[in-house]
Structure formats: C-alpha cells, structure tokens
Specification:
Largest interface: A-B, 41 and 38 residues
Structural class of chain A: mainly alpha
Shape of chain B: globular
Structural class of chain B: mainly alpha
Number of strands of chain B: 2
Radius of gyration of chain A: 22 Å
Number of domains of chain A: 1
Strand order of the largest sheet of chain B: 1-2
Number of helices of chain B: 20
Radius of gyration of chain B: 22 Å
Strand content of chain B: under 5%
Oligomer: heterodimer
Largest sheet of chain A: 2 strands, antiparallel
Number of strands of chain A: 2
Distance between the termini of chain A: 31 Å
Number of helices of chain A: 21
Helix content of chain A: over 70%
Distance between the termini of chain B: 36 Å
Strand content of chain A: under 5%
Order of helices and strands of chain B: HHEEHHHHHHHHHHHHHHHHHH
Chain lengths: 501, 498
C-alpha cells in the first residue's frame, strides 16, 4: 500500500506549488498541466483510500507535528472521505479548465505583456490555486480544531491573492472585503475552539462529545454558528457573497461555492455529531433562516442580468438547502444535506464554469446581449442545460436524489413538530420551483431565439471553447449522474458515521 | 577552550571593537571583516554554550577565578543560553546586511559605526550572560550608550530622537541602579544566586519591595513598555536602517529577559506572584500595550514608524506572557522574544532595503514595489503574516501559547485582547501589502489595450537580500519546529514551580 497516504494527499499540491514557483520562468507554460497532474494524482489516492474506507476500515494517521499537545492527525472515515474526494475532484476539473481561461484572463487584465511578465502571472495563478485543494482536503481530514482553523486560514489567504490578482474591475477592494469576512469568521471559529479547550482541555474533535449537556455548550455552538453562518452566507450574513462572486475570476467560481458550503461539513463534524442534543435548540431557527435565504437568493438571482452574478446569487440560495437539511437534525436529513452539499458543488461547478465559457468566448457578461448561441456553441448549450438540470434537481442528477433523501428527513421532522415544521418543509420544497425558474429562463435568454446582432457583428469568433475546458465539465456531469442513479456507495459511507451516532 | 566560551563571548568583541577603531584610521575596508569575525566568534561560542548547557546543565563561570559572591560570576542556564544564541545570531545576520546599507547611508563614519556596533552587541551579550546585578548595570549602560551613538548617526531628526532616548534611558538606568542599591543595602550581596538565597527571609522588608519596584520600572523604560515607550518611535524611525533592525530586534528583548530574570530568579516566583500583585499589573499593562501600539501603528504612513509602534505592541505580548506567570503563558512570552527578534528584524531589514533602493518609506507610494523587489516583498509578506499570527509561521504559535496561558489562568479577557490585537495587526499589514502588490483598479473589461508601463526588477544587492531571506525562512522554520525548541530548551527555562 501507499505509505502515509493521507499526508501525501495534502502535501502533493504544496510540493507541486513550490515546484511551479521555482521553475516559473522555465516551465511556466506547463504550470497548468503540472497543477492538474498533481491533483489527478491526489484524486487517485483518494479513490484508493475510498475503496479501503468502503470496506469498513477507518484510516487514521498520527503526526505530532505542530506543538506539544496539538497534533496534526488525519482521519479518513465515511464522512470526511466522500467530501474530500468530491472537493478534490472539482479542484482537478477546474485546474484543467483554467489552463486556457487564465491565459485569456491575463490578456484582458494586463494587456499585451512581455513573455517574462506573462509567465510570472500565469504560473502565479496555479501556484496559488493549489492551496485550495490543500485547504479543502485539510479541513475535511483533520481531527483537531486548531489544525482545522489553520486550513481555513490557508483558504482565506489563497482566495485573497487570487481575487486581487485575477478578479474583475473592483478586485482589490472586494478581495480585501472577502479577507476581512474570512478572518472574522475564522476568529469566531477560533474563539469557539478556545472555549472548548477551556472546558475540556483538548482541541481534539473526538473529545468534544464530553461537552454534551454542559451549560456552556450553548454558547460554544452559538460562536461556531456565527462564524460558520458568515462562511455559508446565510441571510443576514450573506453580504459578501454577491460581491465576491461578481468580481472573482470565473475559473475559481466553483471553488468559491465549495469554500462557502464547506462550513456545512464543519457543522456536521464539529457540532452536530458530538453535540446533537445541545444543538437541538438551534435546529428550528437555522431552518427558518435557511428558508428565508433560499427564497431571497432565488429572487435575487432572477433580478440579475450579468451571467456571472446569476451563478453567484444562486449559490446563496443553494447552500441553504443543505443547511435546511442539517437544521432538521434527523439522521436522514443530515445525510441528505451532506449529499446535497456534494451535488450542489458539482452542479455549481458546471453551471459557473459554463458562464465563464460564455464570457471567455463572447466577451460580454450581460445576458441581455446574448441569445441564439445554441447554434454556434452546441456543447456549451448542453453544458449549461446540464448544469441547470443538476441545480434544479432533475433526475438523473445526484441533486435530485439528494433532495429526495433530504426532504424525506425534513418531513419526518416536520411531522413531529406540527404545524410549524411542516410549513417550513413544504415551503422548502416549493422554493425549488424558483431554482427551475431562474436556471431555465437563463437558458432561454442566452442560447435560444435569434442570434443577437451585436454578437454577430463583433470581432470575436463565436464557437465552442477548447476541449480542456469542456471535457472536465462533462466529466463532472457524468459523476453527478452516476451518483444520482446509484447513490448507494456514498450514502453507505455517510451512514457509517452519521447513522451510528 | 570550550570552558572559556562564557568569557570569550564578551571579551573578544570588546577587544575587537577597539581594534576596529584603530584599524579604521588607515583602512576603512578592514572594519567590516573584523566585525564579522567578532560576531562569528560570538555565534560559535553561544552555540557552544547552549550545547554545554543542554548536555551538562547550568554553567558557573568565575571571571578571573574570583569566587562569588565577591567575584563576578557568569551564570548560564537554559534561559540565558537561549537568549545568547538569539542575540549573537540575529546580530551577525544584521551585520552582514549592514555593509552595503552603511556604505550608502554613512560613508564618512564606517569605522565609528562598526566600533559602536560591536560594542552594542558586547553589551547585549554581557547583560544576557552575567550573573551579577551590578555587572548587569554596567553592561546595560555600555549597550545603551552604544545605542545612543548609533541612533544619533541617522538622518535629520536622529540627534533629537537620540537625545530623548539618552534622557529616558538614563532615567531607566538610574531606577535600575537605585533598586540594586536597595537590595545591596539590605543583603550586602550583588550576586543573583546569592541574592535569591538571602532575599526570601527579607520579603516583608519595605526596602526590598521598593528595590524590586524600582528595578522593574527601570527595566520597563528600557524595554519601552507602554506608557513608557515615548522614546521608541522616534529613535527607531530616524536611526540608520541597519541600526533600526538591530535595536528593534534585540534591545527591547534583552530588557524583557532582564525582567524575567529579576522576577523569577533573583526573586522567587512566589514573591512576584503572590506577595504583591505585580503580575496582574504587568499583564494589564501588556494587554493595553498590545492594543494601543497597534492602534498607533494603524495611524502611520511611514513604514519604519509603523513598525516601531508595532514593536510597542509586541512588547505587550511578551510582558503579558510574563505577567500571566504560568507555564503556558511564560512559554508564549519567551517564544515571542525569539519570534519577535526574527519577525521585527526581518521587517526592519526589508524597510531598510526599500529605503536603500527607492529612497522612500511612505506606504502610499509603494505602487508596483512587488514587481521591482519581489524577493524582498515576499519576505515582508511572510513576516507580516507571522506578525498577524497566521499558521504555520512562528508568530501564530507564540500567540497560541499566550492564549492557552490566559485560559489556564482563567483570564478570558486577555484572550479577547490578543484576538483583537491580531485583527488590528491585519489592518496595518494588509494595508502595506495592498499598496505594494496590487495597483489601483482600472476598468479592464473593454479590452482597452495598451501595455502596462514596464517595471524592471531591481533588487537590493545579494549581501542585503540573503540576510532578509535567512530571516524570512527562519520565521517559517521556527514555526514548524517550535515544538522542538520548547521541548529541548524552553521548558527548562521556566521556573520549576510553575
């Protein structure tokens, strides 16, 4: 077997990043392929780990790295592994996608530059990009609150630099805003962790359950939720999200959805599993907030005309679905919520990246200036439709299955807490209609009808993008369909951990 | 040879500093190699001393063979050995860096600069190694006088800043001397070990109490503990770049060492903690310093002045660690002495490099600096992240231990202070990073064409760049191996009763 497999998964992108940095003037043109290659490697490793976990072994690796008493241990079990695997896979997909996109982005941002400057910008994107998978997988696999805090910070900083270098017009200001939100929410997380340490004298997640029933548990959960809700962009903590999504480069858009939605995993791992009964108080408020966010986000999306913002605002609404599932606090709904988290990030990656393709090819962002693109760009039209179907939960996509499972759980809870819980559940299901509305309305506006005269006359050549951009997205759609038709493996994995609690 | 290291580390640089001055009369070029020779010997001896201490425990070295308490004793335990390595290593790195910087800033005064520079290091090493209260005073004065002279060599305004430092520094030294005098009146001894044996019977004496407080106030002025920091910002801002880096990294830290030594070796911890509420006062002063220093730093537009105020805040962390007076807190405080020597050293070296190349320090004019000096700015970023406390840089860990120490002491309010101060650090460091890295946003969407104005990479010479990079990589390495440092050295430096 592969030695230190989990450590390898985290370190491989770091090493690749350092390698890209050191050879940036010699091999800068290959930077994208190196980055994608290293992520392909870690994805394969995660698949190997997945097989072993599926057979029922928990993989636990111990490293006494950080400091006395603070360990960097890594754990792959039924909950952390699928999350890490899907997130890492999406990073890989987007690394392939970025190979052409970043080239285009540098040209738009910095104009004609000499070879050396170009190489330094191009490679910079990839060596920064690689810290996303490090952060995502790190958060998923660690067993210690401080280590988790560390990986959250890694994500925030990588996001800051990528935004500020490669974003759209207001990039530096928005990057700063995003950084402040990120660090503030991480500080709430840290404050919660420190309170836990003060009570039980340990940062280990596996020890948190000893806190159950402690009167302080309420405040600890509240601190964590305050921090995580601003990551999740739940109303009223959603302020940063549309800004950030409007200005960031589209090739990391999918990752932003993961960045935000990752907090759902943390809620399950750190709060719900060990402290389920103490968490009960927060269940209903969380569901109500999620419901408000769902409706609000959907309405916000419908009002947008910028293709990037359409995708952005839909993230606000979509993340709340998984929060709704978590808030219901039944085993089935939590499993469904986690499954929806994975389905959503896959769907969102397809949807967002296709929006990026539209901007890449046509050079316009305003959906009112598009139209009739289906004939010129058939593959893009298919991709957008796939993304739309996946987001709105059409069978056979995994989000359909996930929503089904999740709402089973939510209704189960709703029946116990008549009539309020039931109302929330029914409203939640109805909110899906809004998703269908905005995704497919956008399909109509961008791809069908007569070809917009502006586009026909512009000097851009309208055609499908290079294969490195479309194939990874089609691959993601396939994974989503496979999981939708046959969800058993992933549900079994979740059930190993969540069901046993 | 090995047994003589404690003497060599002080005597050798003293002798060389005078030789440098004499040699400087007929060859300016020889000054630098001689200074490097002196400091390299210091580094080797300090590592030798640390090694001996780790293997065989505390070293008692009787200067001239005179037996204490009459003779002067050099007493080296884990705490001094740790400090000696920091002082000698950082000063060597800064010295290598200083060569070009001094040639540019002070071409007339090269021999004088190196003479005083080596003398300053001698003083700092001496303060750290000595086991005698009065000897400590003498060496403190040597170091301070050297520092006054070095600071006065700087730009316009330096003479005034130095004079202000002279006055406040002299007051601080007087307090220290008075306090020592009180202890001598009561006990008749100046040897630290001897005092620590004699004093416990006299803990009720008012004279001892007054002496203790005088000494602490004197040291607090020397280490610029808020609100006694008035001399520091001007002195750091106007001093020559190399001097700022050296003084900021080491002077105040040695003061912190003296404070720890007095509170926990000369006096027993239970005197400092239980008999008078001095630790509570110190922790609060440290906490206030953390916040006020950061707020003042935010208001500055001059990079060096900003860093100077940030030093005031960092001293607050160290004093908070001392004031918490438990194992975790003091570990954090001592680790922060090491970390801050590296972080602030690195930041001031970078500031010096920017002055060397661009001739300016105004943060708001840093446009495109990253493209001109990528390595320097990368080092700055690492150090800035460490100051903010982002893992895995070393700054995170000292703050972490301080937080854990506050939790152990059940002082949650200090946890809040530390977190708040970190947020304030984010504000002023990100401001610099933003101006140096990113240009003001321009509409990019319309393919408005045009090329960016060419910026050619224009780094400082290698002899300045390498020290900067050494410090920056040191920050990362200290962070990664902080557990090792604590388990091999620091845990023995903390009083056993904690």
């Amino acid at each position: 077997m592969v030695p230190n497999i989990l450590l390898q998964i985290i370190l491989a992108p770091v090493i690749a990043s350092i390698f890209i940095f050191l050879t940036r003037f010699k091999m800068g043109r290959k930077a994208g392929w190196i980055a994608a290659g290293s992520l392909l490697y870690t994805t394969v490793l995660l698949c190997i780990v997945g097989l072993r976990v599926y057979q029922g072994t928990r993989i636990y690796e111990e490293y006494l790295l950080i400091a006395p008493g603070i360990r960097l241990d890594l754990l792959a079990d039924g909950l952390s592994l699928p999350v890490a695997l899907i997130m890492n896979m999406l990073c890989m997909v987007l690394a392939f996608y970025s190979i052409h996109y970043v080239d285009h982005r540098i040209e738009v941002l910095y104009g004609e530059v000499d070879e050396r400057t170009w190489l330094s910008y191009y490679s910079r994107f990839f060596y920064l990009f690689l810290y996303f998978p490090v952060g995502f997988v790190g958060v998923a696999l660690v067993t210690n609150l401080l280590a988790m805090y560390f990986f959250l910070e890694v994500l925030t900083i990588a996001l800051f630099f990528i935004m500020a270098y490669f974003g759209y017009i207001e990039r530096v200001r928005v990057a700063l805003m995003c950084l402040v939100w990120g660090i503030t929410s991480a500080l709430f997380f840290l404050a919660g962790s420190l309170l836990i340490y003060g009570e039980i004298g340990s940062f280990e997640i596996s020890e948190i359950h000893t806190l159950a029933g402690n009167p302080l548990a309420f405040w600890i959960i509240l601190l964590f939720l305050l921090g995580l809700a601003s990551k999740l962009a739940i109303f009223p903590f959603h302020v940063w999200m549309p800004w950030v999504h409007a200005e960031h480069p589209t090739c990391i858009a999918g990752l932003l959805a993961v960045y935000a939605n990752l907090a759902a995993y943390i809620i399950v791992r750190v709060l719900i599993l060990p402290l389920r009964s103490d968490f009960g108080v927060f269940g209903m408020p969380l569901m109500v907030m999620a419901l408000i966010t769902m409706v609000y986000g959907s309405l916000l999306t419908m009002a947008q005309t910028d293709v990037k913002r359409i995708a952005a605002c839909s993230t606000i609404s979509q993340i709340s679905y998984s929060v709704l599932g978590l808030g219901a606090l039944t085993t089935v709904s939590i499993e469904g919520g986690m499954f929806f988290f994975l389905s959503h990030i896959m769907g969102k990656t397809i949807f967002f990246s296709t929006a990026g393709i539209l901007v890449y090819v046509t050079g316009v962002r305003d959906i009112r200036q598009m139209g009739g693109l289906a004939r010129k760009m058939p593959i893009t039209a298919i991709l957008w439709t796939l993304g739309a179907m996946s987001l709105s939960g059409f069978p056979p996509f995994s989000s359909f299955t996930a929503e089904w499972i999740m709402f089973t759980g939510i209704f189960e809870r709703g029946i116990y807490t008549m009539p309020f819980g039931l109302i929330v559940a029914i409203l939640g299901v109805s909110a899906i209609l809004l998703t269908v509305g905005y995704t497919f309305w956008a399909v109509k506006r961008a791809f069908f009808g007569p070809l917009n005269p502006n586009l026909a006359n512009s000097n851009h050549e309208i055609k499908d993008p290079p294969l490195t951009m479309s194939i990874p997205l089609l691959f993601t759609a396939c994974v989503s369909i496979i999981l939708g038709v046959y969800p058993k493996p992933i549900m079994n994995l979740f059930h190993l951990v969540i069901g046993g609690c | 040879m090995t047994q003589q290291f404690p003497a060599i580390i002080v005597v050798f640089p003293v002798i060389l500093s005078f030789i440098i001055y004499v040699v400087g009369w007929w060859s300016k070029r020889l000054c630098f190699p001689l200074a490097i020779l002196a400091l390299s010997v210091c580094v080797i001896s300090s590592i030798g001393i640390l090694n001996t201490v780790l293997k065989h425990g505390t070293i008692h070295y009787w200067l001239g063979g005179w037996e204490p308490p009459w003779g002067i004793e050099y007493l080296v335990d884990h705490l001094n050995a740790f400090m000696l390595v920091i002082v000698s290593f950082v000063s060597l790195v800064v010295a290598i860096y200083s060569k070009r910087s001094v040639e540019q800033e002070l071409p007339e005064k090269i021999p004088q600069f190196w003479t005083v520079f080596v003398l300053l290091i001698t003083g700092l090493l001496g303060i750290t190694i000595t086991g005698d209260m009065f000897n400590l005073y003498v060496l403190l004065e040597i170091a301070s006088l050297a520092a006054y002279a070095l600071i006065a060599m700087g730009e316009k305004g330096a003479v005034f800043a130095s004079f202000r430092y002279v006055i406040l520094g002299a007051i601080g030294a007087c307090w220290y001397l008075l306090g020592t005098g009180y202890l001598y009146i009561v006990t008749g001894s100046l040897n630290m070990m001897d005092l620590s044996q004699l004093l416990p019977n006299l803990y009720q004496s008012k004279a001892v109490l007054v002496g203790f407080v005088f000494i602490l106030v004197g040291v607090a002025i020397k280490m610029a503990l808020f609100p006694l920091h008035a001399w520091l910002p001007d002195a750091y801002t106007h001093a020559p770049s190399a001097v700022s880096a050296l003084v900021a990294a080491l002077m105040t830290k040695v003061g912190a060492y003296v404070m720890v030594r007095i509170m926990f070796t000369v006096f027993k911890p239970h005197f400092s903690i239980e008999l008078i509420p001095i630790t509570t006062i110190l922790s609060w002063m440290g906490a206030v310093a953390m916040i006020m220093g950061s707020i003042f730093a935010i208001m500055q537009s001059d990079l060096k002045r900003m860093l100077a105020y940030s030093s005031v805040a960092q001293i607050g962390y160290i004093v908070l660690g001392v004031g918490l007076a438990n194992r975790m807190g003091l570990t954090g405080g001592l680790l922060h002495i090491l970390n801050h020597a590296f972080m602030k050293g690195c930041l001031f070296l970078v500031a010096g490099a920017i002055v060397y190349k661009m001739g300016m320090r105004d943060i708001y004019q840093f446009k495109d600096l990253y493209r001109k000096m990528p390595y320097t700015m990368a080092a700055f970023t690492i150090a800035a992240f460490s100051m903010i406390g982002i893992p895995p840089t070393c700054g995170f860990f000292s703050k972490l231990y301080l937080i854990l120490g506050s939790i152990d002491a059940k002082q949650w309010v200090f946890v809040g202070f530390i977190l708040l101060s970190s947020m304030l650090n984010v504000v002023y460091f990100i401001n610099v990073i933003r101006h140096a890295y990113f240009e003001p946003p321009k509409p990019d969407y319309a393919h408005n064409g045009g090329t960016r104005e060419g910026v050619v990479m224009d780094e400082v010479p290698l002899s300045m760049l390498i020290p900067i990079l050494v410090m920056a990589s040191g920050i990362l390495l200290l962070g990664i191996f902080n557990g090792k440092i604590i388990s091999t050295v620091l845990q023995f430096a903390i009083p056993a009763s904690f």
